[in-house]
């Protein structure tokens, strides 16, 4: 289903500004990819945090995302408008949980998250179709982030020299 582009003025609304990934969701093509790119500086800021604080902040951003994405969907009149990318930000942060810092892991995490987010292997596709509201918008990206994190951790374990 083709949806109308979101006007630039939408980012004046604080809820839409955040749900649209600080404006990256306004991209005319691949807004999910641009939203995931917006997650990289967020990760860079969070990466030095302890495991506990990183986990708590990610859970908080997930909870806030349920509200943001649900509110944005109602304001835009589309359940999961492609411009809503807060879910990509949280999904990427999940992907990067416990990953060694460095450009290699940032890039591989980005690629893996985007692959799982686009591919939507079961049960991601099922959850995407069955769960509605803000939770429905968030949950498929959370699971894509978990899948990507597992693969990323496996690569780090098997090829640690790539991440030194």
Describe the structure.
It contains seven helices and no strands. The protein is globular, with a radius of gyration of 15 Å.
Determine the mean pLDDT: 94
- State the total count of DSSP E strands: 0
Percent helix range? 55-70%
Domain module tally? 1
Distance between the termini: 44 Å
The amount of beta strand, in percent, is under 5%
Question: Summed up, what is this model?
Answer:
The protein is mostly helical.
How do the strands and helices of this protein lay out in sequence?
Elements (H helix, E strand, L loop, with lengths): L13 H6 L11 H16 L4 H26 L9 H10 L7 H17 L4 H7 L2 H26 L6
Keyword list:
164 residues; mainly alpha; 7 helices; globular
